[in-house]
Amino acid sequence: MAGEPVLMRKVLDALSHEERLICIWKLGGYSTGDIARHLNCSESDVEFLFARAKTTVRRLLHEQGSGR
User: Fold this and answer.
1) Which of 5, 18, 38, 61 has its CA 20 to 30 A from that of 67?
2) Residue (of 55, 66, 50, 60) closest to 7 by Cα position
3) Domain total for the chain?
4) For residue 46, with 0-12 CB atoms within 10 Å meaning exposed, 13-18 middle and 19 or more buried, which class applies?
5) SS3 at position 19
């Protein structure tokens, strides 16, 4: 659809660099432990950032669906 690239750009711009990386690696099948080791942080940091990214994506999709 015509608006999908714009929405995707908006979603990606709303995420931090680390959040984008974590989402990509999660989609690629990497474990939380693997991601934490690569980013040199704790697994709880990875889980927090992934949860925050999912919340942001859901909010933006909801706003798009409600026409805001």
Assistant:
1) 18
2) 60
3) 1
4) buried
5) helix
- Does 25 fall in a domain? yes
Rounded CA separation 51/26 (Å): 12
Residue 39 reports pLDDT greater than 80 = yes
7 occurs within a structural domain: no
Q: Where are the alpha helices (DSSP H) in the chain?
A: 4-14, 17-27, 32-39, 43-65
Global pTM value: 0.84
Residue 57 belongs to a domain: yes
| 58 found inside a domain | yes
Token pair 């990386």: residue: 21
